[in-house]
């Protein structure tokens, strides 16, 4: 489908110096603190010793990247959790690049393949992060369509070289990164997508791939490619995938509104969703409410208060997730007490975002447009 070319999105993303140009701030924190802070973002780090060498030896600020497809409303895993992780990385002396993957969304048929809609969603997502507490000082937004058009020769030569080094079977294994199942009748575009995502890492000169565990396969493909071509391998820091709220959901789904809390959800929506969330008493494994407490609440707060009536023992004050988990497993903390306090905490994190989208004219217009679009998987 032919798409009308729009003006560059760069001005709206905010111009600043290129990432990785400022000196590596080796004197601000001890090396061990920087490594620990970076590594805390990941459920898995490949490899920790490489991360330490990078933070110690690179002359300029290392570059971490994450790519996102603009594909609908943003849930708190993308919003709050991402802001928490980005702030940790930038505090440790890393520049963070968001690759606004509008062309990738087109390949994946998001927003019914309408590039204008996709780019509107991309602008909306940027506004969410601005309001969600993300420190933007060392954060950069690069639009795929703009950057590839400006550096087409460099980009497409890299994509072609990657495609020459891996057979179809190997590349197909990476196609689950699109949120699709691996199958023989997948569109050729999905194979192209995997090669392009691998190329992004080298095109952006990323030292660190900081994506979710669901993107691990293509990041490991990039390390394999780097070895073949005798290039420096990117470090892979894969963050945790926040569970969906319903029983058995490994991650949130935008196509199932009750499985996720969205960044502009009203307080009553959050209260309702948390109240209905799967949260079996005394069970720790596969419990989404505990997952939210661990990764969202304690990612933002040093202390979490579970409010209880005096006749039920009074308030419980937790300074670590481990304390709370122990009480929950032993039955000292009931879901009926945990859920209202969890909802209250999440609402407090979302209030600045709600306020931004109600009071900022530009942000409100973007949200109104995005709500009209059909969300695609």
From TrEMBL:
The record's listing under InterPro entries reads:
aa-tRNA-synth_Ic, Rossmann-like_a/b/a_fold, Tyr-tRNA-ligase_arc/euk-type, Tyr-tRNA_synthase
List, alphabetically, the Pfam families matched: tRNA-synt_1b
Major enzyme class: ligase
Swiss-Prot/TrEMBL catalytic activity? tRNA(Tyr) + L-tyrosine + ATP = L-tyrosyl-tRNA(Tyr) + AMP + diphosphate + H(+)
GO MF terms held by the record: ATP binding; tyrosine-tRNA ligase activity
Task: Give the EC number.
Answer: 6.1.1.1
Cellular component terms, GO, for this chain's entry?
Answer: cytosol
- Quote the subcellular location field of this record: Cytoplasm, Cytosol
SUPFAM superfamilies cross-referenced by the UniProt entry: Nucleotidylyl transferase
Gene Ontology biological-process annotations: tyrosyl-tRNA aminoacylation
Segments carrying the region annotation (Disordered) are 1-27
Ordered alphabetically, the record's keywords are: Aminoacyl-tRNA synthetase, ATP-binding, Cytoplasm, Ligase, Nucleotide-binding, Protein biosynthesis
Specify residue ranges for compositional bias: Basic and acidic residues. 9-19
- Give the UniProt family note: Belongs to the class-I aminoacyl-tRNA synthetase family.
Explain the purpose of this protein: Catalyzes the attachment of tyrosine to tRNA(Tyr) in a two-step reaction: tyrosine is first activated by ATP to form Tyr-AMP and then transferred to the acceptor end of tRNA(Tyr).
**NCBIfam families from the xrefs?**
PRK08560.1 (NF006330)
> What is this protein called in UniProt?
tyrosine--tRNA ligase
């Amino acid at each position: 489908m032919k798409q009308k070319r729009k003006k560059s999105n760069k001005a709206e993303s905010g111009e600043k110096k290129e990432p990785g140009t400022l000196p590596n701030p080796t004197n601000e924190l001890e090396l061990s603190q920087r490594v620990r802070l970076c590594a805390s973002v990941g459920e898995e780090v490949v490899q920790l010793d490489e991360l330490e060498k990078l933070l110690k030896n690179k002359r300029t600020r290392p570059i971490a990247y994450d790519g996102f497809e603009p594909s609908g409303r943003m849930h708190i895993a993308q919003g709050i959790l991402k802001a928490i992780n980005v702030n940790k990385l930038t505090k440790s002396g890393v520049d963070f690049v968001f690759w606004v993957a509008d062309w990738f969304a087109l390949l994946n048929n998001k927003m019914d393949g309408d590039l204008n809609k996709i780019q509107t969603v991309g602008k909306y997502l940027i506004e969410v992060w601005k309001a969600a507490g993300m420190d933007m000082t060392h954060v950069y937004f690069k639009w795929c369509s703009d950057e590839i058009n400006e550096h087409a020769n460099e980009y497409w030569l890299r994509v072609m070289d990657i495609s020459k080094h891996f057979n179809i079977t190997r590349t197909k294994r990476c196609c689950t990164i699109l949120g699709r199942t691996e199958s023989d009748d997948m569109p050729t575009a999905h194979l192209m997508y995997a090669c392009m995502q691998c190329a992004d890492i080298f095109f952006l000169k990323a030292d660190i791939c900081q994506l979710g565990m669901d993107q691990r396969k293509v990041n490991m493909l990039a390390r394999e490619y780097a070895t073949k071509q005798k290039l420096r391998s990117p470090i892979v820091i894969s963050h945790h995938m926040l569970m969906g709220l319903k029983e058995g959901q490994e991650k949130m789904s935008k196509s199932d509104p009750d499985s996720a809390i969205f960044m502009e959800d009203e307080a009553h929506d959050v209260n309702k969703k948390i109240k209905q969330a799967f949260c079996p008493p005394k069970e720790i494994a596969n419990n989404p409410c505990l997952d939210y407490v661990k990764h969202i609440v304690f990612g933002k707060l040093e202390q979490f208060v579970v409010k209880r009536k005096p006749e039920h023992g009074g308030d419980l004050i937790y300074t670590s997730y481990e304390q709370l988990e122990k009480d929950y497993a032993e039955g000292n903390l009931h879901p009926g007490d945990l859920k209202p306090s969890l909802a209250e905490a999440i609402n407090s994190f979302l209030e600045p975002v709600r306020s931004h989208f109600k009071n900022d004219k530009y942000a409100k217009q973007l949200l109104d447009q995005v709500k009209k679009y059909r969300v695609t998987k």
